[in-house]
Amino acid sequence: MTIWLDCFAGNPVTGTVVQASDQSPIAGANVLLKNAEGKLLAYGVSDANGQFSIMPPSTSENLTIHVTIMGYRTYSTPLVLDGNPLVIRMEEGAFQLQEVTVKADRIRESGDTITYNVGSFAQKQDRSIGDVLKRMPGIDVANNGKIQYQGIDINKFYIEGNDLLGGKYGIATNGIAYDDIGAVEVMENHQPMQVLRGLSFSDQAAINLKMKNSAKATFLVHGTLGGGWSEQPQGALWQGDIFTMMVTGKYQMITTLKGNNTGLNLSDELLDFTSDKSDEELDGYIALSTPATPNLQRNRSYFNRSWMVSSSHLLKTKNGGEFKAQIDYLNDRVSAQGASTTTYFLESGDQIVLEDKSSLSHRNAVAGKFSYEINEKTYFLNNTLSADFSWNDLTLNTTGSLPNTQSAWMPEYAVSNLLKVIKRFGNNKLVTFTSRNEWNSLPEKLTVTHEGQDYGQKIKQHAFYTDERASLGFVFNKVLLSLEAGVSGYFRNLDTNLFGVDRMDVTETEALTTDYLRVFASPKFEWSYKKLELTLNLPVNLYSYFFSGAMGNRTEFFLSPSLAARFRLTPRMSLTLRGSARRSPASLHDIHDSSILTDYRSFSAGVDDYYTSSGQSLSATYSYRNAPSGIFVMAMGSYGWNKSKFGTVQNVVGDYVFHSYQSQPSDSRNAMAFFNASKTLDFMRGAIGLKGIYSRMENCLLSQGLPTDYRHDSFSLSPSINGNISTCLNWNFRFTWDKSRLKISDMPDRNSNNYIYSGSVTLTPCSLITWTTGGEYYRNQIEAGRYKEMFMLDTKLTFNISKRMEVSASATNLLNRKEYSYTSYGTVSQYERSSKLRGREFLISIYLKK
How far is CA 98 from CA 42, 689, 726, in A? Predict the structure, then answer.
């Protein structure tokens, strides 16, 4: 049909690109208008909602519309307009790689917002949005689920612009099906509070998940049920989960229930990665060393029986506010077995301790968080009430140099309330009020059984912290001047009781209070001019301490200035320089007279005098991104100096280790460098990346009465690549080299090198079958000239019966490797360890999605 375009001259051609199967929108589709000779006249790309708008030439006729995108058959038809938006229905099918001509299809940028097209990064074996996030350049997802963009932690994780989960976004990344998400938005320099936007700078980014239209305002549910057999530990395997979600304009909900004994760690999903922590936190003293496997995928050695339920709800109110409620419960039972050889490097000769360990831990945890928030351009209000309770017990059996059984009971109780109010008057005045109140309790008990005798440690810690502050800010053109001031109080009780130990010269009992009142003021200067953002902080603190026992009350003054300058060299490139100088108060955790038994052979003595520390630090951060070309680069370096009037002491007496402090000047230095670069490879729908980390720590320790200088260097280099050929074959590979070096005084250097090769290949010969095979190869240096090598191989066969149903059969650790060995370094010590692994396992599971 012939269309005369002068009837709609000046009006754009609009429409929506959707999947033919379920009408869900397709983002990143190329929409082309061509004339009868095939010449391209106009061009557009569909957005995250599948919508496009193209302005055609006013004098052309007989136009044809063409739509192309990877994974779908090319759509081509004469352009027919009836006054209504077009609906382009794309059918899945094979494609030719040479059809992809525009690099911006996969990633688009608009100002400070980067949009990733989920469909162009997803692979056949992916299930959750977290699987796809790991493949997006510029975004890093740690093993525990924490997300970083350009090497910096994100400050918010949104779903359709709403912060449903707070910092516990691991529930979403591991639960939301990737095919319910149309696009992932990264909002750079994100300021979560609208009242501060344009006034207070931020170098953190936020992530926002854009749902497909088909996934909105509907009840989403999917689940997995599986069973199988394991050879170590020998017995039945089971795994199950159900995930439910609803997203509407006024209400959001995610509720999930999971359980397994297959080595999947559920506690990571309940970690809060963006919590606003207070200045004071209680730390426990008892620390039992259980068998561990660093650098190894945790599920390889995680002998567990775990249950988890989490329910999060967000409701928008009529006055523009939102109410959020989040309740979590975790039940975790974990066992581990391993052996270790600990060598303490001493001037008088090395001290060696041999241990074979078997541990069993139980943890029950309940957490609740309830908040109400109003986030407007002139007013911000947030009140958050949270409670966290956990009951933890651990039994550790040890044979070797000093056979014993350790039993530890370590519950934790915490209740807190945080209120924050910000009011903006006109364009040049801000008033802020913040109130924080927290109560914490950490009772601990350690019982050690050795040669029929019991000894151990009882500890009770209780603390209440309150912080009330207000600030006033003025805006003058591009300058924000603010003054924050307030008072805070910390009231802490510590009771220790060392029982059954009467053959050592140690202080057994103590009842101590360490309280303070603080008055503080923090002037802040923020200036923005063209490409420069400058931030100057001058916090001033006056502490009045009140101690029981022999220590006298005292008053201390602290000034800790810091300066940050950010240069936006181009819209895509920035350089940030930071410097600070500080004088810090003592850690109240280390102030006590008694000797505390932290495990069966380690004692920790505190200091009997108040002390302060001081330090300076410098850092530089370079960031570059070219989203249309898929290039992301970030580099950072820092150096710090620290001084204290107390130095650390370590004495090894027989099989026991005593850690304490001594009044002597202590200087330490630390350095760190980080590099992360990634680039999309559009010709094979893949990406390449390179990450490098270097750190150095220098200090001095009083060991066996002798000053001992030591330096610890660590280095890691990790290149990676992923890609695919058509839809039939995709792969990902990563190589990691870790190097650790310990230098002690005039002793020879001690080095450890570890190499990890990991990867997987997925073959999809037809739409019904997906076969994935992969694993890791480890080559760990145990000592000079001696390495331990291990190859772990897995495979999984999936039958894609429909888009709503999958049946899979998997086999892990096919070669039945049962032990992992490695070497690491402590302060002036070396640890050679081996741990028991999960053996060969077979699992059959069914996945259903509504």
Answer: 20, 24, 11
